């Protein structure tokens, strides 16, 4: 189980976390599945907090994903309830009922409507999540909420994660400083499709919900949607972004073009940095991971095509096991490019590892010396670059190696 | 390396192999990569032998795949040369030269043109395959060819395979008995896309090349194209079918509709059985496999859609590790259905394992008793059935579990 896993060798320490005015959080041990650790997180947001969200595109979403998708058009959030250990997925009417009861209980504590309560669950699929475990624990949890509860929250949402994940940045909007701070969980079943594993980000910026949504959707595209641990997309993925408005920055119009407006340039950069940090922490905690792969694909016919090639490399069990074995087996990269169905030409393709161009023009480079590549493979950060030689499309994706640790964790997750 | 791997617990013994009139085979140790085992196979076919072939759709095919694809329109084959240990892939001009020199040497021995010589190689990608190792070994190998050399050939083409693979069937065409006998290799990098790993099948039936081709292409679709070990498609996949004509069955017109002609019904059934047997042996020798998964998908919007769902289940690392851990974790099957992008509806989906319907109508079945399913999971043959409840499309696919053995084999293949 999660508690007994050794910490990932790629783990990063938590950054110094600050306060996001308008947000109070906390975590408690509700005994939903795990013993001797927190597994229920509550966050309360100031009145007027705006909401943006991005969700899994799975055809079998969990009940909390359905719930959040339904309330998202309201654009308002006052509370967030997250549990770990039970995903509340494929639980039918009982799962919907648990959502309703949980939202009602949290709404009563926060003084809002149930439609202003976001819900998220991850863990085992297909087991009924008993609402009373949550609703019984919520009042005491609510009493203990604190604006410094971020680390507790980051720990309380973990499942097979081996370290808590958080990121923070500051930005200016119209001369006023705002903060963006977020947490994430995720380690396996990671191949987000237009969404991610659980991540919750808050800012004290005052931004209309449609602006937040545009910034979040764009930012996720090049961060969470470019990572993969095992090609398996979760039924529970979501990223939520809350804007409390407590920073009282100059108003930003709902109709602004969020992706190009100059007054949001600094905020966009900071938000994307938070998303990038959190996404890469998920890879660094990939189940069983000992090495991280950064894959740069250039020369594709389009960015989309480059992304597909990058994900094919990052998802290939043969590439991932070669990385685990510190084997500069570039032929498997060629294999992954060839199989993925995207336009590619063996004879214009080039492959580099650790900055060394190994193969091009359909064969290995003359005089290729494996020595520096072998040295690079012994490190923790493996850089793979592929140029398809066809066009201007490019993408960057991230993955991790595939080791015995992944088998250990997933051959016995339920038992 | 291949020689030291323990034999798959799912291995099958070789069936009693017969002779295919018009075919003589043999194998020799040419020292291409492996030590102390055969690694070069030669087959010679009687004059007039017709040829059909199906190849990998990778964008980075090996030089032998290019060679065979180029000679296939000739529809004639007199010889086949196969080596194990070096795939001759991504080897540029040197790789093409090795193909030419090998075909010329074999043609001289068989008394034919180089364009009547089929070539195949599997093994490491990106290393030059020295032609002289092959051409030096061919004359003695040719002298020793025998019509009983099938087992030697089945062993000589193995790489990470742990057991040799062969299948045989008899059929009647116009009252005349013909035999269909084939061999295959393959264990990892198995996710054939309109083709397969290496498989060579011969029949003494007299059938025009276009008829053979139509039968082979159709047969591969529901056999080799429905298996996956690790979702990685090889650069070297091919199935070749040779018809020597030695059985002297009544002539079959080149223009016959091979897929419906009544005089070919028995032959079609027998050929498909050979393809089915060989494909499943590849799964039974999946790298590290301890259990075989048979996945039946029904109720899809089309057969193609059902196939994609079945392959998504068979490729999911989380499903495969659950099977390895004997965990009836049906939630991961739901996850795989949900992620694959095909039409599916959580609330019409049902999932069965070992013939027990576990979940339907969006939740677990009332009174579900895991006992018989747990017992089924302890066996070697795991049956998974998914009904999508949407239409009439169906498909059957096969996969194997994902174990420590796979990591062991692929974390150190080259070294």
TrEMBL record, chains A, B:
Major place of residence: cytoplasm
Site, as annotated: Involved in the stabilization of negative charge on the oxyanion by the formation of the oxyanion hole: 122-123
A molecular function GO annotation: L-glutamate N-acetyltransferase activity, acting on acetyl-L-ornithine as donor
Enzyme class: transferase
EC number: 2.3.1.35, 2.3.1.1
Keyword Acyltransferase: yes
Enzyme active site: 196 (nucleophile)
Entry annotated with the keyword Amino-acid biosynthesis: yes
Cell location: Cytoplasm
Pfam family, one: ArgJ
This protein's GO CC annotations: cytoplasm
Sequence similarity: Belongs to the ArgJ family.
Oligomer and partners: Heterotetramer of two alpha and two beta chains.
Protein name from the UniProt record: Arginine biosynthesis bifunctional protein ArgJ
Organism taxonomic ancestry: Bacteria, Pseudomonadati, Pseudomonadota, Alphaproteobacteria, Acetobacterales
């Amino acid at each position: 189980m999660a508690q007994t896993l050794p910490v990932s060798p790629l783990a990063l320490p938590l950054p110094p976390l600050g306060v996001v005015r308008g947000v109070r959080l906390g975590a408690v041990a509700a005994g939903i599945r795990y013993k001797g650790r927190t597994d229920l997180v509550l966050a309360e947001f100031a009145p007027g907090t705006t909401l943006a969200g991005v969700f899994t595109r799975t055809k079998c979403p969990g009940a909390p994903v359905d719930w959040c998708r339904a309330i998202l058009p309201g654009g308002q959030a006052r509370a967030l309830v997250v549990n770990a250990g039970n995903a509340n997925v494929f639980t039918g009417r009982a799962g919907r009922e648990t959502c309703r009861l949980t939202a009602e209980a949290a709404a009563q504590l926060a003084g809002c409507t149930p439609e202003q309560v976001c819900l998220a669950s991850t863990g085992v699929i297909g087991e009924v999540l008993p609402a009373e475990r949550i609703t019984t624990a919520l009042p005491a949890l609510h009493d203990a909420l604190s604006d410094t509860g971020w680390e507790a929250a980051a720990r309380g949402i973990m499942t097979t994660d081996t370290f808590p994940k958080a990121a923070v940045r500051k930005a200016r909007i119209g001369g006023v400083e705002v903060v963006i701070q977020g947490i994430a969980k995720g380690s396996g079943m990671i191949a987000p499709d237009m969404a991610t594993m659980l991540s919750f980000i808050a800012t004290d910026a005052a931004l209309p919900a449609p602006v937040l949504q545009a910034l979040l959707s764009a930012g996720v595209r090049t961060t969470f949607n470019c990572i993969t641990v095992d090609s398996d997309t979760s039924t529970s993925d979501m990223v939520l972004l809350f804007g409390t408005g407590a920073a009282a920055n100059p108003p930003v119009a709902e109709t602004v073009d969020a992706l190009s407006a100059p007054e949001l340039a600094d905020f966009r950069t900071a938000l994307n940095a938070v998303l990038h940090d959190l996404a890469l922490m998920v890879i660094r905690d990939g189940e069983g991971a000992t090495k991280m792969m950064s894959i740069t694909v250039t020369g594709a016919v389009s960015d989309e095509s480059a992304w597909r090639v990058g994900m094919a490399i990052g998802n290939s069990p043969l590439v991932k096991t070669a990385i685990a074995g510190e084997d500069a087996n570039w032929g498997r990269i060629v294999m992954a490019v060839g199989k993925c169905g995207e336009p590619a030409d063996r004879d214009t393709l080039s492959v580099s590892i650790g900055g060394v161009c190994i193969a091009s023009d359909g064969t290995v480079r003359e005089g290729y010396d494996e020595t520096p590549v072998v040295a690079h493979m012994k490190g923790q950060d493996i850089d793979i670059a592929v140029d398809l030689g066809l066009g201007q499309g490019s993408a960057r994706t991230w993955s991790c190696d595939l080791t015995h640790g992944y088998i250990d964790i997933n051959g016995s997750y339920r038992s």
